[in-house]
Amino acid sequence: MSGSVPPLAVVTGGAGGIGRAVTAALTRAGHRVLSVDREPAADPSAYAALVADLAVPDQAQRLLDDVHERHGLPAVLVNNAGVYPARDFLDYDPRTYAEVLDTNLGATFFGTLAYARALVAAGRPGTVVNVASISGRIGSPDAAYGASKGAVVALTRSLGRALAAHRIRVNAVAPGLVETPMAARIPAARRDDYRARIPAGRFGAPDEIAAAVAWLAGPDSSYVTASVLDVDGGLH
């Protein structure tokens, strides 16, 4: 309809490689995109950027309240905020463990909770796309990271079923190793091992992950919920 306002999408972890690609892809698909990160940087295609540390549980509620008040209720939430310390299990400490779980799982859990409550209160449908990882299916040398992403997979399946009656779809993508600044921190020997095990023979590109996210966020996937889409070159 002429003059209608494009649907609003919120992308967390928007300053990272995948986050910037998702922001651009959703913008091309016709969304107004708010990019959120704890770093004050975002894809230039985002029409607005917000700073929040979503590893702190009450930040998710504050963020959604602020977005709702200033920009309206989002049609799409992409939970992409995450950290990867590239740390061996024997080198872990409680602080790093907490940071990984609070960011990768906690931000997804509490962000979706705040969003779903707002949608239900308004009687509106909505769509959630979580960024998990193939490590959540097959494990990871970084055990806390793999555990956090495995929990995101389980959370996606649980919430997709629990929220379907409220017309809220919840899905996830599970990327393999993707060429991003975060992945560049993985030790070279481990990167070589990963590459050797990928049937496609290469790492993914952020745009390839973003395309999957955009599909799950759009109307062509309207009958898809509680699903996890592997985007990993066949690694799984």
CATH class, please? Alpha Beta
Give the low-pLDDT segments. none
- Through-space gap between termini: 42 Å
Mean pLDDT: 93
List the helices and strands in order.
EHEEHEHEHHEHHE
Q: C-alpha Rg, in Å? A: 17 Å
CATH homologous superfamily title: NAD(P)-binding Rossmann-like Domain
- Architecture per CATH nomenclature, i.e. the level-2 architecture: 3-Layer(aba) Sandwich
Work out the helicity level: 40-55%
Number of strands: 7
Output the structural class: alpha/beta
Query: How many alpha or pi helices?
Result: 7
Side-by-side strand order of the widest sheet: 3-2-1-4-5-6-7
GO molecular function: oxidoreductase activity, acting on the CH-OH group of donors, NAD or NADP as acceptor
Family: Belongs to the short-chain dehydrogenases/reductases (SDR) family.
Pfam families: adh_short_C2
Keywords: Oxidoreductase
What are the SSEs and their pairings?
Elements: E1 8-12, H1 17-28, E2 32-37, E3 48-51, H2 57-71, E4 76-79, H3 94-122, E5 126-131, H4 135-138, H5 143-162, E6 168-175, H6 188-197, H7 206-217, E7 228-231
Parallel strand pairs: 1-2, 1-4, 2-3, 4-5, 5-6, 6-7
Helix pairs in contact: 1-7, 2-3, 3-5
Domain Ketoreductase: 7-171
Family: Belongs to the short-chain dehydrogenases/reductases (SDR) family.
Protein name: SDR family oxidoreductase
